[in-house]
Amino acid sequence: MSKEIEDHRILNRSGNEPFSSVLERHISRRGVMHGGMGMAAMTMMSGFGLVGCSDDDDNDGGGDTPDVEPLALGFESIRGSKTDAIVVPEGYTAQVLIPWGTPLNNSVGQWSTDRRMTPEYQAASVGMNHDGMYHFPLSEESASREFIMALNNEYIDQSALWAPQGGPTNQQGGDRPVDEVRTEINAYGITIVRLSKNSDNIWSSDTGSRYNRRITTGTPIELSGPVRGSDYVVTAYSNDGTRTRGTNNNCANGFTPWGTYLTCEENWPGIFIKNSDRYADDDRLGILRERSIWGWETAASQGSNGEFARFDATPAAASARGDYRNEPRTFGYVVEIDPYGNTTSVSTETAALKRTLLGRFRHEGCWPGKLTEGEPVVFYTGHDARNEYIYKFVSAANWDPADANRPGEDYDRLAIGSKYMDEGTLYVARFDADGSGEWLALTPDATTQDGRRLSDALGIGADDMAGVLINTCDAADMLGATPMDRPEWGTVDPASGDVYMTLTNNSDRTAEGMAATYTDDASSIEALGAGYDTAPVNAANPRPDNEAGQVIRWREPSAGATTFEWNIFVFGAAAGDTDNFSGLTELNQFASPDGLWYDDRGDGRGILWIETDNGYDGVLDYTNDQVLAVVPSTVSIGPGDQAVVNPDDQAQLRRFAVGPNGCEVTGIFATPDRTSLFINIQHPGNWPADPNQNVQSATEATSGTVRPRASTVVIQKLDGGAVGV
Ligand code: FEO
Ligand code: CA
Ligand code: CA
């Protein structure tokens, strides 16, 4: 996400102990361990990361099994880069694929760099600012040559969108023109497009494929799960509270074993305003006042059926049935999409359902846990805001392999999704100082830290699960969850079940701690202070002002477990930083880890890919955003004991690719044969080089100035082999 749409307010007013404090005590404890800790604690951590505590030689607890040769990265770490081009290792190529504006069908004409964007063209072409994405096979046999791609288009870049006319109209004040608003709404959302590669290994989109479609911030979508049909989501558009229009700020993603796509609503509060009668959740999630980020509500008089009026949630009628006071409550969810397009389970034309039981907040993404027949299906999600939380969903139904995706068959995958995602338990994480943790169930009958029934503490009905979900963040506060340094992407090693999650940065937590100076003036975009009485500060705390972020890892005894063990996998840093706990060098220094993917290569072996969205000058001065790779089984906790990746491991953590100026690198997967690695270049400043072509080299530097286009990039080896090794 660009800095432009980041929200720097701290909205979590709970006094829960911040993660940095837990981490500080955890690190101190490890120091004690090396000095001769008691056997009980050592046994607890055995097999998960501590030197001398593991019972195999890998001692990282994840990935390779002792009798399998570990993977070895097959490329040399590349140097940083600050150019209008992508850089990849020697022996690799990179091509541009489906840049913003690539037509999905033959009805709207071709892209050209002087094209004036219209609602109709944008609705029929690839959206803006690519983010999370995933691939869905058309057959098992062809899965590495062709597939349906589902792609998030996280947000809009108005300067690129409106370049031919010199920028947007009335962005700062006055009414926005209806065509501009409709176009912007259509530039958000999801792109679904069939992709294939030719005999020269060049990938392209299949214009006119029956699978191609867009889901935008205006597309009708049904709600599912406990919030569906509740009074919380009754609007003038949906008097029975079963549907809404659109999904927005779709950031990271996920997928299900039954062949559906998960897209997650992150910074959606910015598209709404509410000037009176605000709910507690409006404040907690940051619904704006007066004017929304793009001013879409100012077109209200030009739309019908609340097309634009819905972006102003200020009560305007006698009851919720007559206005859009509840419209923001229809956002903030994980949305499940059938990429194959079967609509049997829905009353809309959109093969999608908002899965409300996975919580309501600024969802970054949603990642499936280790899948085991006869055990619950698990998903991990995170709330990307400073000092917010990590969540886990555990299905009530146990996994039945008969529900696995059957490529090529048309059937009701969303009905399978309802089986696993509409009944179950949502938990929030508490990370304890001794390296253990606990999942706290978010149910109406849960007991809060101060001994009350959660439903009473929230002021909702005794069995009101919808009320718990609408107020997910407050419920998590009350149970004592651990505030984190902005959870971004997660990923799971499907063999061990180890979960990795990026904590990108948390610069708003000061070394001195913060007094409770919270104000509910949500119209200000500046940091307003936190509700914490103190933030932990002392010389031993390695991350009091965390600009560079880290990757955390945890392991659970089983899918449905309510306990886990955790450690820090790697800290971001500039090589010269005093808090460079992982010992990074010029060749692998990074900051603000964001995208993440555990690339399972079989036999319990895999590569962890890390993508960055960095604003920290210590690294930014050296390189643009990047992709790094590490084989978890080749790194280990060592001297210093702060993180799994330590100063002895620097040859194992390698810089694989660097993006063009101004971009963030995000979204990642590879074809099943691992010969094509797909990443996204979001908000590039002046790239790709040829402003008129949809397919071109990604490594050619732009000459002059172009209208930038966010794009997918496919990285392949010149010899056609598997990437990374
Ligand atoms: Fe859209 Fe948290 O990144
Ligand atoms: Ca992100
Ligand atoms: Ca980010």
Question: What's the helix and strand layout?
Answer:
Layout: H1 19-34, H2 39-45, E1 92-97, H3 119-123, E2 130-137, E3 146-153, H4 158-161, H5 178-187, E4 189-197, E5 203-205, E6 213-215, E7 220-224, E8 243-245, E9 250-255, E10 261-265, H6 280-285, E11 334-337, E12 352-355, E13 363-368, E14 376-383, E15 386-388, E16 390-398, H7 413-421, E17 424-431, E18 436-441, H8 454-458, H9 465-470, H10 472-479, E19 484-485, E20 487-492, E21 499-503, E22 550-555, E23 563-571, E24 593-602, E25 605-612, H11 617-620, E26 626-630, E27 654-658, E28 664-670, E29 676-682, E30 696-697, E31 711-717
Parallel strand pairs: 7-12
Antiparallel strand pairs: 1-30, 1-31, 2-3, 3-4, 4-5, 4-6, 7-8, 9-10, 10-11, 11-12, 13-14, 14-16, 15-19, 16-17, 17-18, 18-23, 20-21, 21-22, 22-23, 24-25, 25-26, 26-27, 28-29, 29-31
The chain binds MU-OXO-diiron and calcium ion (CA) (2 copies).
Description of the molecule:
11% of the residues lie in helices and 25% in strands. The protein has one domain (19-46, 73-575, 594-717). The strands form six sheets. A nine-stranded antiparallel β-sheet has the order 13-14-16-17-18-23-22-21-20. A six-stranded mixed β-sheet has the order 8-7-12-11-10-9, covered by helices on one side. The protein starts with 18 loop residues before the first helix and ends in an 8-residue tail after the last strand. Mean pLDDT is 89; it is low at 28-64 and 515-542. It is an alpha+beta fold and 725 residues long. Bound molecules: MU-OXO-diiron (FEO) and calcium ion (CA) (2 copies). MU-OXO-diiron is lined by residues 1, 154, 251, 266, 364, 384, 488.
